[in-house]
Amino acid sequence: MRTIKDFKPFVPSNDYAVSRAFYEHMGFTINWSNDEACEIDTNFGYRFFLLPKNHNNYAHSLMLHFMVDSAQAWYDHFVDIQLAETFEGTKVAAPELMPWGLLLTYVWDPAGVLLHFAERPDAQAN
Questions:
Q1: Which pLDDT belongs to residue 124?
Q2: Contact, 115 vs 92, CB < 8 A?
Q3: By CB count within 10 A, which of 58, 67, 75, 76 is most buried?
Q4: Residues with Cβ < 8 Å from 106, sequence gap 6 or more?
Q5: pLDDT digits (tens, 9 = 90+) for 61-94
Q6: How many Cβ atoms are within 10 Å of 68's Cβ, its own excluded?
Q7: Which residues pair with 40 in a beta bridge?
Q8: With respect to CATH, is domain 10-125 assigned 3.30.70.920?
Q9: HEC profile of 72-118
Protein backbone atom coordinates (compact mmCIF):
# COMPACT_ATOMS: atom_id res chain seq x y z
CA MET A 1 0.00 0.00 0.00
CA ARG A 2 1.21 3.49 -0.78
CA THR A 3 1.08 5.77 2.26
CA ILE A 4 2.13 9.34 2.88
CA LYS A 5 3.32 9.64 6.47
CA ASP A 6 4.06 13.35 6.55
CA PHE A 7 3.91 16.50 4.46
CA LYS A 8 6.04 19.60 5.03
CA PRO A 9 6.26 22.53 2.63
CA PHE A 10 9.50 24.44 2.15
CA VAL A 11 9.06 28.12 3.02
CA PRO A 12 11.63 30.65 1.77
CA SER A 13 13.06 33.59 3.69
CA ASN A 14 14.94 36.76 2.79
CA ASP A 15 16.66 36.99 6.17
CA TYR A 16 16.85 33.57 7.78
CA ALA A 17 17.39 34.82 11.35
CA VAL A 18 14.54 37.33 11.11
CA SER A 19 12.12 34.73 9.70
CA ARG A 20 13.04 32.22 12.43
CA ALA A 21 12.44 34.92 15.06
CA PHE A 22 9.13 35.90 13.39
CA TYR A 23 7.71 32.38 13.57
CA GLU A 24 8.92 31.93 17.15
CA HIS A 25 7.33 35.26 18.09
CA MET A 26 4.03 33.98 16.62
CA GLY A 27 4.22 31.10 19.10
CA PHE A 28 5.61 28.39 16.83
CA THR A 29 8.58 26.22 17.90
CA ILE A 30 11.85 25.57 16.09
CA ASN A 31 12.45 21.82 16.42
CA TRP A 32 15.92 21.96 14.90
CA SER A 33 17.99 24.38 12.86
CA ASN A 34 21.17 24.43 10.80
CA ASP A 35 22.58 26.63 8.02
CA GLU A 36 20.49 24.95 5.32
CA ALA A 37 17.01 24.72 6.88
CA CYS A 38 15.07 24.57 10.10
CA GLU A 39 11.92 22.71 11.02
CA ILE A 40 9.17 24.91 12.43
CA ASP A 41 6.41 23.29 14.44
CA THR A 42 3.06 25.08 14.56
CA ASN A 43 2.35 23.28 17.86
CA PHE A 44 -0.96 22.02 16.54
CA GLY A 45 0.19 19.02 14.55
CA TYR A 46 1.83 20.57 11.48
CA ARG A 47 5.40 21.46 10.61
CA PHE A 48 7.24 23.12 7.75
CA PHE A 49 10.81 23.72 6.69
CA LEU A 50 12.12 27.28 6.63
CA LEU A 51 14.86 27.89 4.07
CA PRO A 52 17.62 30.53 4.27
CA LYS A 53 17.00 31.60 0.66
CA ASN A 54 14.22 33.02 -1.49
CA HIS A 55 14.93 31.71 -4.99
CA ASN A 56 13.40 33.91 -7.70
CA ASN A 57 11.42 35.79 -5.03
CA TYR A 58 9.29 32.66 -4.54
CA ALA A 59 7.99 33.93 -1.18
CA HIS A 60 5.64 36.39 -2.89
CA SER A 61 3.95 33.47 -4.66
CA LEU A 62 3.63 31.19 -1.62
CA MET A 63 0.61 30.96 0.68
CA LEU A 64 0.08 28.76 3.73
CA HIS A 65 -3.48 28.04 4.83
CA PHE A 66 -4.25 27.21 8.48
CA MET A 67 -7.78 26.18 9.47
CA VAL A 68 -8.39 27.52 12.99
CA ASP A 69 -11.24 27.70 15.49
CA SER A 70 -11.20 31.50 15.62
CA ALA A 71 -9.69 33.88 13.08
CA GLN A 72 -10.49 36.70 15.51
CA ALA A 73 -8.53 35.05 18.33
CA TRP A 74 -5.50 34.69 16.06
CA TYR A 75 -5.82 38.32 14.95
CA ASP A 76 -6.06 39.42 18.60
CA HIS A 77 -2.96 37.36 19.40
CA PHE A 78 -0.99 38.99 16.57
CA VAL A 79 -2.06 42.44 17.75
CA ASP A 80 -1.23 41.62 21.39
CA ILE A 81 2.30 40.46 20.52
CA GLN A 82 2.74 43.44 18.15
CA LEU A 83 3.74 41.16 15.30
CA ALA A 84 3.55 43.82 12.56
CA GLU A 85 5.35 46.40 14.71
CA THR A 86 8.14 43.99 15.65
CA PHE A 87 9.05 42.69 12.19
CA GLU A 88 9.64 45.08 9.30
CA GLY A 89 7.66 44.21 6.19
CA THR A 90 5.13 42.20 8.17
CA LYS A 91 1.42 42.97 7.88
CA VAL A 92 -1.61 41.65 9.74
CA ALA A 93 -5.15 42.13 8.39
CA ALA A 94 -8.26 42.07 10.56
CA PRO A 95 -10.60 39.12 9.98
CA GLU A 96 -12.77 39.45 6.91
CA LEU A 97 -15.61 37.23 5.73
CA MET A 98 -14.84 36.02 2.22
CA PRO A 99 -17.50 35.41 -0.45
CA TRP A 100 -16.76 31.67 -0.29
CA GLY A 101 -17.75 31.56 3.42
CA LEU A 102 -14.47 31.57 5.34
CA LEU A 103 -13.50 34.22 7.87
CA LEU A 104 -9.83 35.01 7.18
CA THR A 105 -7.07 36.79 9.04
CA TYR A 106 -4.14 37.41 6.71
CA VAL A 107 -0.53 37.71 7.84
CA TRP A 108 2.42 38.49 5.59
CA ASP A 109 5.72 37.19 6.92
CA PRO A 110 8.96 39.21 6.56
CA ALA A 111 9.74 37.59 3.18
CA GLY A 112 6.24 38.14 1.79
CA VAL A 113 4.75 34.67 2.36
CA LEU A 114 0.99 35.06 2.84
CA LEU A 115 -0.45 33.12 5.79
CA HIS A 116 -4.21 32.49 5.95
CA PHE A 117 -5.74 31.87 9.37
CA ALA A 118 -9.16 30.65 8.27
CA GLU A 119 -12.28 29.92 10.25
CA ARG A 120 -15.46 28.30 8.97
CA PRO A 121 -18.05 30.43 10.87
CA ASP A 122 -20.94 28.06 10.14
CA ALA A 123 -19.02 25.20 11.81
CA GLN A 124 -19.58 26.79 15.23
CA ALA A 125 -23.35 26.54 14.80
CA ASN A 126 -23.07 22.72 14.56
A1: 57
A2: no
A3: 75
A4: 91, 92, 93, 114, 115, 116, 117
A5: 999 999 999 999 999 999 999 999 999 999 999 9
A6: 17
A7: 30, 48
A8: no
A9: HHHHHHHHHCCHHHHCCCCEEEEEEECCCCCEEEEEECCCCCEEEEE
